[in-house]
Amino acid sequence: MAFPQRWIYGNYQEGYINNFIKALRDLVKVGYSRGRNQQFPFNLIIYVVDGSHRDRVVEAKDALHRILSECKDELRDIVLLVFANKQDLPDAMNTVEITDKLGLHSLHLRHW
Question: Is 88 annotated as a binding residue?
């Protein structure tokens, strides 16, 4: 699934999250149309966060939690992999800080 460049570089827009959730639900329907016993079309979500962009991490958290809450039934058993890029920059957030600011510990019953 490709997103416009401006989303990748941080110009968050509500429509992109809505489109992602819609696309995710469409994928779920494809999996279910093959029969409930069939495996979900994917088993991993990779979420990339700009590790140096401290003032946008709240938006990243809100978007992640919204996706996971609105699609919680479909994503119940899906593993979440969080990548924090730009770790080589001097003011980049470390793992503990990113984990805390994204609220990953509040994602009970989820592998991340």
Answer: yes
